[in-house]
Amino acid sequence: MRRRAMTKFSVARDIRLGINNLMLHGLRSLLTMLGMVFGVASVIAMLAVGSGAGQETLQQIRELGSDVIIMDSVKPVAQDKQQQTTNILSVYGLTYRDVSHLRRTIPDVEMVVPVKIRREQVLLGSQAIAVRLVGTTPEWFRLVRRPLLAGRGLSPLDEERRSAVAVITEKLARELFPLQEILGSSVRVGGNSYRVVGVVQSAEVSGGEVQSLDENHDIYVPLATFRERQGDVLVKWSVGSRIVERVELHQVLVRMNSEKVVEKTASSLQRLVDYFHKKEDVTLQVPLALLRQAEKTQRRFNIVLGAIAGISLLVGGIGIMNIMLASVTERTREIGIRRAIGARRHQIVLQFLIETVVLSCCGGALGIALGLFLPWIITQLTGLSTVVTSASLILSLLISVTVGIVFGLYPAIRASRLDPIVALRHE
C-alpha cells in the first residue's frame, strides 16, 4: 500500500513538473502546439467536407427505396443517327407487354408501376412554366412517398373512367394559383385541361448523379387518360427537320416484397430485357446497388482526405520531437542532478513523455474547437455541405495523443540514457 501511494505521488509530481517546465517557455510551447492545432483541425474539416459531399447523393438514393428497381426507356444511339439522316419513325423503349411479362414471370414482385412522361408548358399570363406531365397509376403515390397536403390522390376509378383529373406538386400549385382556390381549378397542359383534385409536397430535388423519380413541377394524371389524350407518338419540330418517336412507356418502377431479393431479381429482369429488347433500349437502375457503391466510394474518399490532412499532423509531431530534443540538450545538467539524487530512467522518460502528451492533448483540444468552426466557414463561403461526425472528433484526438507519444518517446529515451557524471559536467 505504501509503495502504491508513493508511486501515485511520484506520478503526480512528475505531471506537475512537466507542466511547470512547459509554462516556463510558454511562447515556445504555444508555437509547438500550433502544428497539432492545425493538423487536427484540417483532419476534421477535410472529413466534414468529404462526408458532406456524398450526403446529398446518398440521401437521394435512399429516397428511391432500397427495395425498388427502376427501368427506363433510352433511345439507341444507332437508331438516333439513322433518324437524323432519314427522318423516319423511331420506335423504342418499354412496352405494355413488358409490364405483363414482369407480373407473370418475376416472383417476389409486390408492385409494378408503369409511367409515361412528357415535357410540356403551362401558360401563366404571358409566362410559360415548364412542367413534367406524368401519366401513372394510383400505386405511384404508394411507391414515391410524398405527403398529401390537400385533396386526394389518383384513384382506380379515375383510371377506369379515364377522368381528366390531376394531382400537382405544392410548388407548382403556388405558382399557378397564388390567390385562388387550388382544388377544383383547371390547369391546361398540351391543349388539354385537367381538374386539380390533390396537392402533394414538392420533392427536394438536388443536383447529383442520381435520377429522381419526381420533380418540383410535376402534374400527375391517370395513365389511361394520358394515353388517350397524348398517345404514344411524339413529334418534335426543329429547324428544317422533324423527329417522330413512339414510346409506349418511359419508365417502369418495380417494388419487391423484400430487400433481400432485389439483386437476384435485378439479374432476372436484365435477362428478360436482353431477350425482348435486342437493340438495348432499356436500362436498369438498382438504388440498393447504387447505395452500396456510393457508400463504398465515400469511405474511400474520406480515407484519402483524412490521409492528406494527416500529413499536417505528422508535421506537428516532427515539431514536437524537434522542440523536445532541444529541451533535452538545454536540461542536460538538470537531468544529471535528478539522476544523481536517485531518479530512475523510467522517471526521466515519464517526465518528458508527460510534457509531449500535454502539448499534443492541448493542441488536439484547440484543434477540435477550430475543426468545429472551419466547416461552418466553408459552408458559408462556398455553399458546400459539410458534416462533422463524432467519429472524426474522436479519431483526431486519438491521433494527436498517439503522435505526441510516438514523437516524444525518442527524446525521452535519449534523456534517460544520459550518463549522470557527464550530464553534471555539461555547461
Q: Main beta sheet, described?
A: 10 strands, mixed
Query: What is the H/E string?
Result: HHEHEHEEHEHEHEEEHEEEHEHHHHH
Number of strands: 13
Instruction: Kindly report the average pLDDT value.
Output: 79
Shape: elongated
Strand content: 15-25%
Through-space gap between termini? 41 Å
Number of domain modules = 2
Radius of gyration, in Å, reads: 34 Å
Number of discrete helical segments = 14
Q: Concise description?
A:
Keywords: Cell membrane, Membrane, Transmembrane, Transmembrane helix. This protein is of the alpha+beta class and about 425 residues long.
List keywords for this structure.
427 residues, 2 domains, 3-stranded mixed beta sheet, 20% strand, transmembrane transporter activity, Macrolide_Exporter_MacB, MacB_PCD, ABC3_permease_C, cell membrane
Explain the layout of strands and helices.
Elements: H1 2-24, H2 26-64, E1 68-73, H3 77-86, E2 89-91, H4 96-105, E3 109-124, E4 127-136, H5 140-143, E5 148-151, H6 156-161, E6 165-169, H7 170-176, E7 186-189, E8 192-200, E9 218-222, H8 223-230, E10 233-238, E11 241-246, E12 251-256, H9 262-276, E13 282-285, H10 287-330, H11 332-340, H12 345-382, H13 390-416, H14 420-425
Parallel strand pairs: 2-11, 4-9, 6-8
Antiparallel strand pairs: 1-12, 1-13, 3-4, 3-12, 5-8, 6-9, 7-8, 10-11
Helix pairs in contact: 1-12, 2-10, 2-12, 2-13, 10-12, 10-13, 12-13
Please, could you describe this protein's structure?
The structure is a single chain. Helix 2 (26-64) packs across helix 12 (345-382), helix 10 (287-330) packs across helix 12 (345-382) and helix 12 (345-382) packs antiparallel against helix 13 (390-416). The mean pLDDT is 79. The chain has 2 domains: 2-60 and 294-425, no CATH class; 68-257, no CATH class. The longest helix has 44 residues, at 287-330. It has helices at residues 2-24, 26-64, 77-86, 96-105, 140-143, 156-161, 170-176, 223-230, 262-276, 287-330, 332-340, 345-382, 390-416, 420-425, and strands at 68-73, 89-91, 109-124, 127-136, 148-151, 165-169, 186-189, 192-200, 218-222, 233-238, 241-246, 251-256, 282-285. The chain contains 14 helices and 13 strands. It is an alpha+beta fold and 427 residues long. The two termini are 41 Å apart. Strand 10 and strand 11 form a beta hairpin. 34% of the residues are buried. Strands 1, 3, 4, 5, 6, 7, 8, 9, 12 and 13 form a 10-stranded mixed β-sheet that branches.
